[in-house]
Amino acid sequence: MKARAGEAAVAPGLLQGAFGELLNPTAQPDDEGARLLRMLTPREVEVLVRVAEGRTRG
Question: Which domain of life is it from (predicted)?
């Protein structure tokens, strides 16, 4: 309901930390993490980065 209303359903700081680690891991991602990341299209990665940065548009 919050997402539909345009509100954050998850704390932005939590998302930023999680996605930041996923996209820029301090260590090599495990096989499962690498496999999941390869499943994303370039556009999905772009959107994921924007969400991690806390952007809402463009």
Answer: Bacteria
The tokens of 56 are what?
A: 């809402």
16, 48 in Cβ contact below 8 A?
no
Alpha helices in the chain (DSSP H): 12-23, 31-38, 42-52
Residues 6+ apart with CB under 8 A from 42: none
In one-letter notation, the amino acid at residue 29 is P
For residue 14, the model assigns a pLDDT of 74
Residues 6+ apart with CB under 8 A from 3: 9
